[in-house]
Amino acid sequence: MSAAPGPGQYDDSRLADALRAGDVIALTEVYDTYAPFLYDYCHGLLRDRVEAAGALRNTMIMAREHVGGLTEPERLRGWLYALARKECMRRRESPNRHTGQEAPEADDGDLTPEQLARRDERRALAHSALAALSGRQREAIDLAARHELDAVDLAGLFGIPPDEAEQLLEETHEDLGIALHAALIAQNHWEDCPSVSALTESWPLAPQAARSLIRHVDSCPTCGGRETPPLPADRLLAVLPIAAIPGDLRLDVLTAATAADRADNRHAIAAYAEPFTARGWPVPYKPAPARARERPEKRGGGRMFAALAGGAAAIALALVAMTAIGGAGAGENSGSADPDVPGTSGAPSAGGDPSDSLGPEPENPGSPTAPATSASPSKSPTPSESPTTESPTPTPSSSRPEPPPPGSLSVSGCSMGVSSSCTVRITAVGGPVSWRVTGTSGALSASGSGQLAAGESTGVRVSRTNGLCLGQRRGSVSFSPGGSASVSYC
User: Percent of the chain scored above 70 by pLDDT?
Assistant: First the structure.
């Protein structure tokens, strides 16, 4: 990952021990050390800045609650990625996840137009090479090359033996080298071969075109004899964008992880990480199987009604729990298992397509799942494990808990001054709130929706729509379930 610390610059053992002791300063250090990289990884899986922020917040809460079970404190960094991935996979499965708000790209310094053009050219090359890989391979090479996880870390992250992780990584490096060779031929010699010219009408390449190009180069006398310079995977992926972590997320995460009045929320969030292996690593998330469509029974109507009523009650309780946990990005979705175009874990890729993610393929119990290369080789291989703890099963009770009462929305206005936008703050008071922007007045535009837990806040960006702005004007932004924020502009 660009600008990431190199191997050996992490202090996992000390941080894990301090975090296990309940040291709040240790939690701050863990956030400052790993949060920017974890946020970029979460954003690559979820493709939404609100969901990525929610996943990172929950990851930090899970880490503080479960670090006592980690038997290898020196593996704290890889363990954090395992928690983050499980939380992201959980969120991807929900049809109610927040979508459509990708994070901006992290500042890459002041580049000249020539440097920007060269960077975009290298990004297009990287996308074209990555397009030939499967989603699982893309995630593995990203975690290895940019996030510096080794094979043992990734074996724990994906729940596979280390030798399978090594094998997947070796195959991925080999396939990426072949794909890069073909992409370089297409980039530099497309005019020399009509078939290459036809395959590269769109650049960067889509997956089908990238794989067709590889087959062509392998069989073409003209293209097959060309030599291209080798390029290590870390250098190839170093040009990909990195998602910029929101500046106000740090306070939100630390408050959510330590506030005394949010202990119940933390316990519910921590349960999402279960079950764990004997080493204390979370067992990879398994998507729930799709329900078979069954024809209604002609007999036993009373039994069927009772079953439906029980299911409805269970769903209602689940929704109440989700609302109570809420926050920025309470939704999840399965997403695309193998996106059409490989992108980055960070900001929008060269093609600008929101589907450009390094998302993994669905978990398949019968095949290896992505692991990665070793920035710091493991000292001893670790066998795969089976879960030692299971998620708690609710016991029947004669009296069901009452759902928490819904809260109200507190809003605060903002002033744009000489700029063209400002941020309105909204806070859930007295309980969870499902909110949305219902309208604006004046020359203003704003949109958004989501869920907030009790006491949680978020920001809504408001922009003015008039080009020339003279004098002092006022407008407002209206919200549901109630509230209007005053906005001054010009």
Answer: 72
Domain count, the chain: 2
Q: In this predicted structure, what is the pLDDT of residue 404? A: 59
Same domain, 415 and 344: no
pLDDT digits (tens, 9 = 90+) for 324-345: 333 333 333 333 333 333 334 4
Residues 342 and 464 in one domain: no
Mean pLDDT, the chain, integer: 76
User: Cα separation of 16 and 72, whole Å?
Assistant: 9
Residue 198 lies in a domain: yes
361 plus 438 within the same structural domain: no
- Which residue among 377, 397, 417 closes a domain? 397
For position 444, which CATH number holds? Answer: 2.60.40.10
Residue range 148-194, pLDDT digits in tens: 999 999 999 999 999 999 999 999 999 999 999 999 999 988 888 99
- Tell whether 345 and 467 lie within a shared domain: no
The 10 Å Cβ neighbour count of residue 375 is 18
